[in-house]
What we know:
Layout: H1 2-11, E1 18-21, H2 30-41, E2 48-52, E3 54-56, E4 65-67, H3 73-86, E5 95-101, E6 104-111, E7 133-136, E8 139-142, H4 147-152, H5 175-188, H6 199-205, E9 209-212, E10 215-218, H7 220-226, H8 229-235, E11 241-245, E12 261-265, H9 269-283, H10 304-317, E13 326-330, E14 334-340, H11 360-368, H12 378-388, E15 395-399, E16 404-410, H13 417-423, H14 432-444, H15 449-456, H16 460-472, E17 476-479, E18 486-489, H17 510-526, H18 528-533, H19 537-544, H20 553-564, H21 569-576, H22 581-594, E19 598-600, E20 613-615
Helix pairs in contact: 9-10, 10-12, 15-16, 21-22
Amino acid sequence: MILDLLRELNELDEHPTLEAKTCASGELGESFFETVCAFSNEPDLGGGRFVLGVSKSLEDFFGGYEVVGVQNPDKLLNDIASGCASIFNHPIRPRAFTEVYEEKLVVIVEIDELSPSQKPLYFKKHELPKGAWRRIGSTDQRCAEEDLVLFFGNRQGDSYDLTLIGNATVADLDLEAIAHYRKLRSKVNPLAEELAWDDQDLLQSLNAIRQENGVWRPTLTGMLLFGTRLAYRRDLPAVRIDYIRVPGKDWVEDPDKRFLTTVDMRGPLLQIVDRAQAAVMDDLPKGFDLKEGQTQADTPTLPARVLREAIVNALMHRSYREHRPTQIIRYANRIEIQNAGFSLKNEDQLGEPGSQLRNPNLAAVFHETNTAETKGSGIRVMREQMRANGFSLPTFESDRANNSFTSRFLLHHFLLEEDLEWLKQAPVDLSDSQRYALIFLREQGAINNQTLRQLTGSDVLTASQDLRKLRENGLLAQKGKGSATYYLPGPQFPEELPEPGVPVRGHETLPTKHTTLAADHTTLGAKHTTLRATLPEHLRIQVDELGKRPGKKIRSVILGLCSWKPLSSSQLAEIIGRKDNESIRRDHLKPMIDAGQLEYVYPEMERHPQQAYRVVASAE
């Protein structure tokens, strides 16, 4: 068995049901039991396995696993059994045994998934949801409140979209928005019984209003669907869509010319969908809009149905607990839709039938008015439409740590003649999946196993094999390890082939861009005094006034510095006069990102080697 497990570990960059640990000291550590909890809880995973006594090889260039053995297997087996039996709300009975490999002892542990009635498993020393863990991809993630819906259904009480809003009254509901709902509903089913009811009965049937102390008041669902603009500004100030047009392929290329276009949209959601779609489509060059039934366009772009479904998906599934707007960001080569609220569905299951609804009452109205696709099919429809029209499949990133969800759509057809010509520079023959990986990397700057799976529809093993081949041939450079593995351009990554006098797609090439960034970071890193000397006068004064014990004042200074230009943690540490840039990142930068004050320059790769921080537009 150990040979098969080693083969699995070495063939995959990440593994959802297999965890390797060294256990050199003979101690398990809490992370072992967190994984036990995650294996036990994750729906439809079927549990998981541990291999204890293996480690990443220091001699293997490609980072393969090797057996190092455990020193005291009997103690380890006893600790596993006693820990699993005592530290959780339910005792866990693992199957644990030893195997010998090249005269070294390895411990293998098998954990079964619990039955639905036993979930969630959690640490007794912590309350829910903090004490429970889920297995998301190849990582263990602490549960949030919204995960409990997955385990308990409605046993925890009403969903958040039935919350009563502040001091709002039925007078804060817009009669025109209610009439718009009736119009949409009648198109789907003109005989729907609720259309014959008066407005109050209709609103009550939609859970848009609830009684409190004998008075009917709007719920969150009611305000989102029918609230007046005044009520939105007063009670839901961050519930809006920001459409942002950015020059180039990066969020900030010129601090003095940050955005070309910004449009803020707020109002009843059934109406705002059309407005948001029109704002984006009107901004695309004429002839870009692919109508339904049309399979090709002279100039590559995004199918209208895909954009609409992405906007609807964002509004229907976002977390309205979070006070931040939905952003539609139009880059030169792609459209990104960034939304509050991680996916309640495992990313590997996105597009599969069935859905887990964060806002079930809001979603019911979207489906009944045919605003959204059949339940659980929205992402599948987007993928099918993009594939049918010759585009790269969209990619989706669910970030539980920052409680956000991002959809990305590249704005050009894949494997056109110019792409194939560019790919001819590769030193080996490439499969279509490997071609997709290189083109995506050229456009986006980084790629990982999950993204490649979304682009190609392949499984974890196939994507790992494709990435490994590209890495072995120098086309990719691997960064990070385990679930944090990602890839940047390697030494053999193809150079762009610009036509004489005509820039390719109007963008600089990726290698050039990365070289420029690296050079800029090197210059700033090597000449810290020069960087500090170039600070605007008001920032230099603020930095000088920090002193040796800046306390919380340091965050206001960081905001000012990152408004001036994006800066890395090491640059900020040097400017402020601190030796430890990691403490700056941990104690200040990460909390400021969580608070919505700062954001990453490379949000898709938190540990990007050139990661820098900039001020969120709404925080400036």
